[in-house]
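User: Can you model how fructose -6-phosphate sits in this protein?
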Amino acid sequence: MCGIVGYVGGEVAAPIIVDGLRRLEYRGYDSAGIAVHDGESIQVVRALGKLKALSEALGDKPLAGRLGIGHTRWATHGRPSEENAHPHVAGGVAVVHNGIVENHIELRSELERNGVVFRSDTDTEIVAHLIHQALDGGAEDLLEAVRRGLSSVEGAYAIAVLSQHEPTKIVAARHGSPLVVGCGEDEMLCGSDIAALLSHTRDMVFLEDGDIAELSAGGLRIETLAGQVVERQSKRIDWSPVMAERGGYKHFMLKEIHEQPDAIAATLRGRLDLEHGDVYPAEIGITPEAATSLRRVYLVACGTSYHAALIGRYWIESLARVPCMVELGSELSNRDALYFDDDLVIAVSQSGETYDTIGAVSAAKEQGATLLAIANVLDSAIPRLSHGALYTRAGPEIGVASTKCFTAQLAALLMVAVYLGRRRGVLTEDQALEVLQALCEVPSQMNELLGDADYVRTVATHLTHATDVLFLGRGYHFPIALEGALKLKEISYAHAEGYAAGEMKHGPIALIEEGLPVVVVCPKNSSYDKTLGNVQEVRAREGTVIALATKGDEAMHDLAAQIIWLPDAPELVQPFLSVVPLQLLAYYVAARKGHDVDQPRNLAKTVTVE
Ligand code: F6R
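Assistant: Here's the modeled complex, given as structure tokens:
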């Protein structure tokens, strides 16, 4: 969702800020703006629509200062428009803001009663007025004014602020929304995530909730909302700026699909003990005693991460023999769920910032459950909240539709299952070794599959005009059917439904008619015969079957209109492979339709609101 970039240093700020905003485009937005202090006053340029519109507006009104803030807005309060785009200015104060001011109605009425005239419908403008009033009311500097202004704000926010009267400083604050400070040479930057800052520096300070930071070219000062000076260690990020480039691919999504073998290999690296059939427990944060005495495991996630969690359940139940529930973060936070001290709650989130997931797992933690995060973004909110964090090492994922983070999450979940299985005495050394060896084979088998991407492109031509597509799968491939359908609807805007193949007779079979495309994930495994039965049922009703089948499966030739071949692999690791053609299928359908694949309409990469 919204993105913030700030720059103070020796260079002209506007191009750096626009470049940073471009790297945050993937978060989703509908307007953008920038404020620069040119040494005399604050100049603001804003535009409805994509950054191209902002760049054109800047072409007409170039901004020359060396200090500025910028923003991409994903509308929450007030429709997308130039007036509602950030920065918002009150007096000599300009503010950009991510998050939501929950008490905006009362704050706005109070300000209006005091004579403030609002120029936008946003909650952000309230923050600008509050800071301006604090300065007018005698706050000694901008940092103090921000502190006073925020003292009446409830909700989640990350803000960056400029003041007319302090032409060398940005003040930034965070509470519940991510904000990172990049420490360059004689320059400081701030941003909603590290991707925005990587081309300038890899030394980052992750602000904590309640931090207010004063950034100047010469340094960084951080205080708490209570006024105490705090030290935050800077961390060297091992993501390179090149990782956030398209690298010759037409879209980030295609690049990221092709990066999956590396993302999995990186996620496994240094964590497997192939001599003793085990995984290294250090970061998991679950002691052997806790693993042994576990009562239940809850996997909590949203969207694509929820589909990874559904597969994780199969592994945790079969390899560690512990009851495992999978919950949507957005639903669990609506329930008065009960947890015990011996429950393990695993939050699965690529961004580590999903509001619904945070809400759900915070409640579990408060009731005493142990919390483990599986996340891709270092030091994001969910890992910070958790007792342990197992990071996927997929590198930056820019395409809004998640691909490489999904398969990296699968690798992490399978490692957790093996860890628990070994501690609980369910898996012998040899059994665990067999699982881990199969997992180690996945990157090369995936590469083999990706070598056939062009064939999937030809299959996609049959779906370009489809308005409805059904996806079916059983066991591990039921969540894969859900994920295949989600990918297709997200980026091609076709209506797609994923179903457990065994449920077909209980309803969806009514949909099948001549020519309805039905994608059936049917590799050779323990449920092959049953799924093949579903293929026959679709055929009997003249549906058009697109099958994912194991190489050499002759029976499929007579049944499916199109077959995408999968490498022969142990059942346990098949979902890593069967998802790849479905990602490619969605990608090629959407690309053929000419859609903005990396930034599909209405979607945001990091969903920081309820
Ligand atoms: C779909 C997608 C979303 C996310 C969901 C949760 O392609 O990416 O469904 O999976 O918004 O996000 P994270 O994983 O960041 O918690």
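A couple of observations from the model: The first strand starts at residue 3 and ends at 8. The radius of gyration is 25 Å.
User: Helpful, thanks.
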